Amino acid sequence: MSVIEYRWALAQYERLPAIAAELVSRPVAIVAAFGGDVAARAAAAATRTIPVVTAFGVDPVGSGLVASLNRPGGNVTGISNLSATMEAKRIGLMREVVPQAATLGVLMNPNNPTVASQLKDIEEAAHAVGLRLHAVQASTPAELDAAFVSIAQNRIPALLVAADAFFTASRDSLAILAARHAVPAIYYFRDFALAGGLMSYGASLRDQYRQIGVYAGRILKGAKPGDLPVVQPTKFEFVINLKTAKTLGITIPPGVLAIADEVIE
Questions:
Q1: Residue pLDDT, tens place only, 206-264
Q2: Got the DSSP string for 219-255?
Q3: Cα–Cα distance between 91 and 97 in angstroms, integer?
């Protein structure tokens, strides 16, 4: 009988190396690592022999986690969720909804190992459409409160939340803070819109989890992770929360509504 061991870091990055080391010491047959590159790196650092299947947030080749997308080599493979490289699309959607905005707020976690590449992608995408950026950082609940105070004090008209496990775990708080400070925001997973966020656009989490399960099953049946190509997401979700839009006094353009995969009313 197969047994699944669950461990949760609760968005506390510093706990991940110890959690990965504990699982490896049991030992387990395979490690499925969720939470983006920080979880992937912790799992990969803990073992060179036990297969690791994960969801990558940025380029897994550039980060050194795999040798190539088609032939990862080593013991790590998975799915690239592209969360940290889809900022141009999110910025474009936000600009459609808040066309008068000349400045875009960006919320980032300074403890995320991909924060530099995230900021570079966002800066390039914002510059391409003539937007200035106002970056704020948070890695704790108290810092989230302070970040939104800064956004309100600087009268930032729109906000993009960069992909990060801490923000995912804090989605309810983010929705409350955005509503309290009347800031329209776009996020990277559907769960944010379900929690009350205005909009979300990104790869389907359910599809990613399914793919990780498929790869885990194939490895348990004898496949080598180094021979399983890193796959790209095939399903993306654009979700609009109309209840939140009404609360914020925002009218979603018909053209934007028409391309939404889900509208929460």
A1: 998 999 999 999 999 999 999 999 998 889 999 999 999 999 999 999 999 999 999 99
A2: HHTT--GGGSPPBPP--EEEEEEHHHHHHHT-PPPHH
A3: 10
65-120 pLDDT, tens per residue?
A: 999 999 999 999 999 876 656 888 999 999 999 999 999 999 999 988 888 888 99
Domain 13-82+205-235, what fold?
A: Rossmann fold (3.40.50)
Name the helix (H) or strand (E) containing 153.
Answer: helix 141-153
Q: Are 244 and 198 in contact (CB under 8 A)?
A: yes
Compute the distance between CA of residue 55 and CA of residue 76 in angstroms, rounded to an integer: 10
* 105 phi/psi in degrees, rounded to 5: -80, 145
* Cis amide linkage into residue 51, ω under 30° from 0: no
Query: Pairing mode, if any, of strands 31-33 and 236-241?
Result: unpaired
> For the whole model, what pTM was predicted?
0.89
Q: Place domain 84-202+237-264 in its CATH homologous superfamily.
A: Response regulator (3.40.50.2300)
Residue range(s) occupied by CATH 3.40.50.2300 in the chain: 13-82+205-235, 84-202+237-264
Q: What are the CA-CA distances from residue 26 to residues 16, 20, 21, 176, 235 (Å)?
A: 16, 10, 9, 40, 35
Tell me 200's DSSP state: E
CA contacts within 13 A on the Cβ side of 178: 31
167, 191 Cβ separation under 8 angstroms: no
Residue type, 169: A
61 with 42: CB under 8 angstroms? no
